[in-house]
Amino acid sequence: MPRALSDERRDLVKAIGDFCRRECGTKEQRDKLTANGQEQHNQQLYEKMAALGWLGIAVPEEYDGAGRSMVDLCLFLQETSYGLAPISGFGTTVIAAAAYDRFGTEEQKRVVLEGVTKGRVEAVSMSEPGAGSDVGALTCRAERTAGGYVVNGQKTWCSNAHFADHILLVARTGRGGTKHEGLTQFMVPTDADGLRVKGIDTMGGRDVNDLYFTDTFVPDSAVVGTPGQAWSQLMAGLNLERMILGALMLGVARRAFDDTLAYVRQREQFGRPVGSFQSLKHRIADMATELECAQLLLDDVAAAIEAEPDRVFAREASMVKLKCTELAKHVTLEGMQMMGGYGYATEYGMEALLRQTVVSTVYGGTSEIQRDIIGKTYGL
Questions:
Q1: Catalytic residues
Q2: What's the rounded Cα separation, in Å, for the pair 168 and 206?
């Protein structure tokens, strides 16, 4: 947890921690909430958080929110991921809500932003089978017709579409001078005619989907922002997506560290706790130091973004995403190694944390892409 917090923020952190311990603090509770780990989101639990007003941190006050705060958002994400709360729909919802808030019509804002405070979930769809890191290569088309557009094509890796209200779809509406021109964002209801959502089985359970659009009509009122300008709109939201992923994974990393520490303090071999052996003690020290560094980085960038919300912190936000996701994967792997066979057993939970962190260095921009972005900011 950040060092310097106001009393109000400390109370928020404590309240979230108490809630998670009460509602999903045991493996038995989490298994019941997630269908034994197959589902990453429990809507009933999510709506309880909405009733407490916590989801409003992603929504401006005029839409019944608490007012957007990057610091508060990062605190919420860290504490809920540390508490293993199954609310995977929140991250994509925040990203979508920010896009609607910045570029949407008044009606789009009303529907989405007020829905967020009530516990409704939103999804975002950019990736395609042939367009992942290279978003400009996408081919899903939205062709102009009377009163709107007709969408045809396939999207993939769309998180949470199977229980979201809408999908913020990025589709090609034309061609311009560069491959990034001619992209448009649309607000598509998940029950739209011609849209089929098919789940993708992964090592982490079911949270991503293929989307198939077959002559799916969307009206002109579904366009989000300026037609053909989706790329610049997407760039405006990069701070948020990277900070969300960084904060989530730092919370998981902290949880993995604490669980590992508790184990090596208690587990005895050769007549003493295994944590007292130098090989493990030094690994614990290294992980603790890296976690402190990551926390300071996250706190510093969150405060900077809160102070200048309209500025794009390309280098700093990429550093947060890179550092926190790579560290989370490292800590969970180290935790499994230090816990031995018990780290591999589902009873102790470390293997679940490992499965959760492995993909974090891939989605939202791979670690390789983040390093490339950081290098470019130095003129390379």
A1: 241
A2: 20
